[in-house]
Structure formats: C-alpha cells, structure tokens
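REQUEST FORM: STRUCTURE PREDICTION
Request ID: SP-0412
Submitted by: Lab K.M.
Chain count: 1
Length (residues): 544
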Amino acid sequence: MPITEILSRNAQLYGDEVCLVELNPEDDEKRRVTWKEYELIEDTAKDGSRRTMTWKEFDEKANRFANLLLSRGVKKGDKVAILLMNCLEWLPIYFGILRTGALAVPMNFRYASDEIKYCLGLSESTTLVFGPEFIGRVEAICDQIPRVKFLFYVGENCPTFAESYDRLITYASADTPDIPLTDEDDAAIYFSSGTTGFPKAILHPHRSLVSSCVTEQKHHGQTRDDVFLCIPPLYHTGAKMHWFGSFLAGSKAVLLRGVKPQWILRAVSEEKCTIVWLLVPWAQDILDAIERGDVKLEEFQLAQWRLMHIGAQPVPPSLIHRWHQYFPGHQYDTNYGLSESIGPGCVHLGIENTHKVGAIGVPGYGWEVRIVDENRKEVPQGEVGELAVKGPGVMTCYFNDPKATAETLADGWLFTGDMAQMDKDGFIYLVDRKKDVIITGGENIYPVQIEDFLRRHSAIKDAAVIGLPDPRLGEITCAIIELKSGFEATEEQIAEFCTGLPRYKRPRKIIFAEIPRNPTGKIEKPKLRQIYCGKSLVQTQIEN
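STATUS: Completed
RESULT:
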C-alpha cells in the first residue's frame, strides 16, 4: 500500500488526538523555570512556543496542499522540493506532495545557494517550498532555476518573488485527491550526505517508505502510548524514518527546535516523551551538563523515558556505559542505515543486546547482510570487508545516474562503502568508510577504531582521524582532537595515552581543533582534508 493510506487511517481512527507538537524553547522564557514552577503556570500561558496538530488537521492540511499543487498543474511523477527547518508544516507538506503522485524532494537546510540550485537541477524539481531562513539563498538563484515554475513560501511576510503557502492553502479543498497510487510508485528523492563528494539523488518508491515504518515499529515496539521526541532534521531519512514507527502506531511525536541539554530534558519531562533519538554529540552534552551541575535530573519528570537510541555514526561504548550511570533503566539501541536503504534499521543492535555495545548489530527486520571482499565474495568470519545489505528498503536507483547505480546495486544487494567485520556471535562491527581507510607503509588503518579509542580519554569530547601525505609511508595518521570545555591536554599526554594502541595505529600527528560534523552527526572529513592536507574540496571529491 502507499504510505499515504496510513495517514488516512490515523485520521479516521484518532482524528481528534494530537499527533504532532512543535516546541521552540528559545522563544519561550517560561521554559527556563524549574519543573515545579512550570507546573503552577496556567495552561494558557504555556503556549508561546508550543504548537500542536491533530491527526484530522494533519490529514486535511496534506489534502489542501495536494489540491493546491494539482490546481497548478503538478502531476504524478513531478518533483516538489522541500527546504524547511523542522516545523509543524513540514510533514503535512511532505504527505500532500505524495498524495498528488508527485515525488517529495527534501533538501538539507545547510545547503548554500549553489547547492540548492545543483540539487533542484539534479532532481528535476519543478516546485520549491521554502521557509524564512532561506529567503536570501533562494532569491539569489531565482533567475537560474528555469525548470522551477512555482515557489511557495511558508511563514509570515512572504517575499515578492514567491507565493504564500499559508494564504493559498486556506482556499484549497480539504478533500482527498482521487489520484491512484500503488506501493511501487515513486515517492521521494533523498540526497546523500555529500561527505565524500557532491550529493547523489536517491530514488525510493512508496514500498520503501512503508517498509521503514514496519522495520522501525518492529525494532522499538512503538505503541499508541509512546511519545517520540524528534530533534534531528526531517529532511534526513534518519529522523523521519524513526518517526515512521510512531506514525504506524498512531502515537504522538514532538518536534524540538534546539539541542541544548536543558531543552531536551524539559521536552522529555513536559511532553512525557518515552523515546528519544540522539546523536553522539547531544548525548555527550547531556552527560557533561549533568556532571557540571548545569542540569539537575531531579527537576525533571523522566520516569516514563524508556528508550534512548543513537544512529548516524559509530557510538563509543564508553558513552553508553556512562549514560547508564545516570539513566540505568533505559533501553538502548544503535541503528545503522543509509539514505540508500531508506534510513536506519537495515542493521540494528537490538534493545536486548546492550552487552554488545560497540557493534552496530545484526540484520534488521526483513533485511539480509553480507561482508564481502573487492570481488564481492563473502569474507571469512572476523575478516574486514565491505558491508552489503539487501531488503525491502533498498533504493530503486541513483536518479539519472546509471553509472553510480551500477557501482552500488547488484542482484538486489546494496554495497554500502562501509568496511565492517562480524564476530563469532554474528554481530557486525563498523570499521570505517571504504574511502576513509588510511594506507601507511602498506598497512590498512581504519580511523574509526582509533577515534573510538581516543574518545575514552576523560578530556576528549570528539576525535577525527585522517591520513596526511608522507613521502616515505604514503600516508601517516593524524588525529584532530576536540577537548571538553574546561579540560586541558598536551600532545605528549595524548601520545602517552595512545600507547594503549598497537604501534602502527598510533597517530603520528596530533592537532587540537573543533571537529566539523554535518546535521546528521557525521564527521565532515573532506573539510578536514581541505584544512590539513592542503587539498581542495574539488580534489577530494574527484579522488572519492
């Protein structure tokens, strides 16, 4: 079935129940009081930064936008791009696009004007929906995107070069459009993160989206009583596909605009959240804030919080052990996935396998996994090879890129470009990106292994390891280290700590600096290579 049918069902069964809450804590001074003080505030005074939507309203807004698009001639197979920060309008716009038979094309909110232009062209989008944060970026390319016929602006004070979404949908019909859809129809184009070059356009059918709903719900057991706190950007498959489990269960979700530890804990407390997906830096920030005394757990109502899970990047085992010191009752899961596999879940640890923290886990519900050599033959257990996955969420193709598709897909298998190994119990450990492997003196070195080791140091907040050119060895390992606030360390102290590593894995160079990460938490190694290797981003992209 197409994923839009789930929305129709929820609206019919749970129409008057709140399904989405948007929180803007930075705009609401009242959220800076203690929990006990907050309890005494009248309900009418709590809504300055809190907006809500019921399932019926969600369904109707999706229909209104669908009918607006249809009235402008948007048809099945067209592409409609979304360039919005997380907000209450985001998901109804997404589902409205799908109900026309068009493809939703979510875009990274960090894109500069030239990247927006590039991705609009790559996806062949004919319509762009954007918010106030992007007025300048969109205006700069208005006369350079001739394929884009319609620009819809979401927010107050609509710019003259666009049309007001808020005004126009009030006149559109709230009836469900009569557009036949099947689970094999194209549904969405997502973009790769671009950490190894220019983004690729990833095409998925409705079948992929529905499979993600099922996989997520099977893994984390969402029920109607759960409340999911969504913090990462909705343009990315990770955030939205974790929400899909709540969507399938018909349960509430909270969109939090902000990542400060105090805001996350208040949102969990005030909205009675039971499931939270965090990125590694956010989890570290919460723990650091607790240990500094900046937040006091007794001021929050957190007993209902049952599951904390992390994805998008390797998770240091030390982080989870530290987390359980403060949240001993929490279930924990690690999720691995790619936009090409419709986001998280093709591999996951499983809440019953916390004893295997450090592994990305086992094949997800409905998925198969292989670890292969350069000839795509399975390697013996314990050896490092490329991770390949097969399942219901594998992309159709890279849109308009048959060469890249042929390099990545074969016989239903998706070759991820990630290096991994499997232990005797069948658990998979991520070693590194295939393209990030450092070859020094003929030895393959996997940066993730060194990064995980470095993060065990009490003064280190984050670490990234790259290869620097060396005339004798080809490359040497360089560790860029970001220290925790208020902590100090010297190169000599870090070097001494690294004696715990095999000699050939020890960093030859240590640099103290901030670690750049993209919105989904991945280290932006092309930027680091540009800074420290003297390579331009173009050179890095060509090599990758």
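NOTES: The CA atoms of residues 56 and 230 lie 21 Å apart.
Reviewed by: T.R.
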